[in-house]
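A quick aside before the break. I want you to see a complete sequence-to-structure record at least once, exactly as it would be stored in a machine-readable document. Don't worry about memorizing anything.
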Amino acid sequence: MKLTVVFLLLIASLDVAALSMGEAINIAGRQRMLSQRITQAFILNGVQPEAQRHQKVLKRSVQEFERNNQKLNTFPAAEKIKDQLKKVQSEWQPFKQLSLQPVTREGATDLFLRSNKLLTETHSYVVKLQQLANHNSAELINIAGRQRMLSQRICKNYAAKLWNISPAEAEQGLQQDLTEYSSRLTRLLESTLNTPEISSNLLKAKDHLNYASRGFEGEMKLSEQRQIQVITGTTDLMLRDMDVVTKQYASLLDSRE
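That is the input. The structure line, written in tokens, reads:
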């Protein structure tokens, strides 16, 4: 048993040692996204308590945030900005505890507000990592990674509006996020560092954004249950599109190190 534990710890340490700056920015950027994905899954659990999908998304997302924290906490190249990571962890602990509680409207409202604070601290850490990297491709990783977050914040605000949680703030945030996602997508498409593969994946994200926008604007006459399926499904596709692109930009940065 002891040998097994030692072996697992050794493997984990090797995995951390192999972490590159591009990968670190990518992982830190996923923390932004997860702060929003956890919240929307929690709220949707309240809207559709019978749906196991939201419960699975919530559980997996909390577990991933924990794993990512551990990786970033032992990333030697970011020792200078360790204080910012501590701020992330300070916000994460009460957020995590609340996210694992039985779903109530009061709890969802609290988590909705806390998600904004956690997002602020995780974003600050990504920016500091980008500054440490000091390369144009690092900015692209940050922007593309933020698109992943926006896809999930769009869904979070939609869910909050649906369950009447901070409806005015949720509606305003929803419209702002759709606009920001579109404008940043345009900026990424104009980058001279794009490979043909990156451009192709960005165009897929644009198509999925256009489809999601039709749902938000009421062009599709759907039942509430079907609309939830369309919105969550399409924003997940937007997330996957940008996850691929973010990793492609991370590879560009690492190839220059």
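Two observations worth writing down. The CA atoms of residues 140 and 249 lie 6 Å apart. Confidence is low (pLDDT under 50) at residues 3-16. We'll return to this after the break.
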